[in-house]
Amino acid sequence: MSFKPIYAITSLAISAIFLVGCSKHEEAQEPIRAVKVLTVGADSMHTGYEFAGEVRARAESRLGFRVSGKIIRRQVELGQRVKAGEVLAQLDPQDYKLATDAARAQLGAAATNRDLAAADYKRYKELKDQNFISGADLERRETTLKAAVAQYDQAQAQLSSQGNQAAYTALVSDVSGVVTSVDAEVGQVVSAGTPVIRIAQDGPRDAVFSVAEDKIGMVMVGSGAEVTAWNSKEKLSGHVREVAASADPVTRTFAVKVALDAKDALPLGTTVSVVPQAFDRSGVQVIKVPTSALRRDADKSAVWVLDVSSMTVNLQPVVIATADGNDAVVSSGLKPGMHVVSAGVHVLSPGQKVTIYQDKYANAAGK
After folding, report:
1. 267 and 327 share a domain?
2. How far apart are CA 266 and CA 286, in angstroms?
3. pLDDT band at 233, cuts 50/70/90?
4. Taking Cα atoms as reference points, which of 135, 141, 97 lies closest to residue 122?
């Protein structure tokens, strides 16, 4: 028996296994991605600078007691509408009533002294007419009468003042409006002049918003503005009535007040969006790209630009000036006619081959 054929077959099998093990695996090629592309062109701005603000009363009154004391009653609540002459709060008047009684007693004593001095003067004048006393004695009695009259006048004025003090223990509204703040509660001791109730007066309304330092110079008193309430689509016209002379110490922004027409009676505190006419940029030709096309690396922005001849993409740095709705306004880095990838920018790499995405459903619908 010969073992050569079996040996040969075995050698061939081993060689084949060795060759297979030593052969190189072919690397899998990266798939060509389909991307959405838009062609850059000049477009018009559709929005200007828009600011968030709130509706406030043109005039607000901070009311406080004209005397000090302990609050024993408060008749109004936050948001309540009040009328001029309505009592808002009450201090404990007991001490002021006692002071009024004391002043009234002093007035009675002064009246008695005055009457006594007047009767004494009358008697001495009759004696002088009969030459029973000298002129100096009569003059002394006249001086005493004048002093008594002055003391009576002083006591009368003191009584009136104390009566006013007692009346001041009732806080009375001198305007009609809505209570926007309650700064003191029952049982609290307040000093004279301390704000207790704040009232937004009835009448014209303002839309108040804040503007940064670098843009406040563009806002001029008398310029127009468009105001829209967030709970309504109705656009209201107004004009800039006041620009703050100094910046807020915390936010470093300037408050701007836009006067609204009296017929546009928006509720106090309504949130509004304000578009000042000074910042209107509608119709300005700019280059815009959707925000989905932007790629942010560190502190720089870039977009993927498609080279149509090689169907590859490369990063193009851009400078963003501002926003226009959901689009970004590019101030430099792009020119009209460039092809920019508008979606999927975070899965691309420089020089990567791509194809232009075709919506099969849109194509099918078009057929």
Report:
1. no
2. 36
3. confident
4. 141
Please state, in angstroms and rounded to a whole number, the distance separating the CA atoms of residues 278 and 223.
Answer: 7
Per-residue pLDDT tens for 284-330? 778 888 888 888 877 788 999 999 888 899 999 999 887 777 788 88
**CB contact at 8 A, 277 and 218:** no
Determine the structural domain holding residue 194 and report its residue range: 62-89+172-199
Shared domain check, 101 and 80:
no
Amino acid identity of residue 219, one-letter, is V
Same domain, yes or no: 150 and 100: yes
Other Cβ atoms closer than 10 A to 313: 25
DSSP notation for 39-81: E--EEE------EEEEEEES-EEEEE-SS-EEEEEE---TT-E
Tell me what percent of the residues of the chain surpass a pLDDT of 90: 45
Token pair, residue 165, equals 């003090």
d(CA 203, CA 221): 21
Listing DSSP states for 301-331 in one string gives EEEEEEETTTTEEEEEEEEEEEEETTEEEEE
Q: Is residue 148 part of a domain?
A: yes
Number of domains observed in the structure of the chain: 4
140-164: average pLDDT: 91
Cα–Cα distance for residue pair 61/174, rounded to 1 Å: 9
Highest mean pLDDT among 36-40, 195-199, 264-268, 321-325: 195-199
pLDDT for 48 equals 65
Predicted pLDDT at 2: 46
Asked if the structure places residue 19 within a domain, the reply is: no
- Residue 283 has what pLDDT? 65
Distances (CA, A) of 34 to 125, 339, 340, 361: 125, 14, 13, 15
Confidence of residue 7 (pLDDT cuts 50, 70, 90): very low
What letter represents residue 102's amino acid?
Answer: A
Q: Which two tokens stand for residue 337?
A: 């006619």
| 270 neighbors 54 (Cβ within 8 angstroms) | yes
Q: Is residue 219 assigned to a domain? A: yes
Q: Are residues 151 and 112 in the same domain?
A: yes
CA–CA distance, 319 with 305 (Å, rounded to integer): 15
Contacts of 127 by beta carbon, 8 Å cutoff, 6+ apart? 133, 138
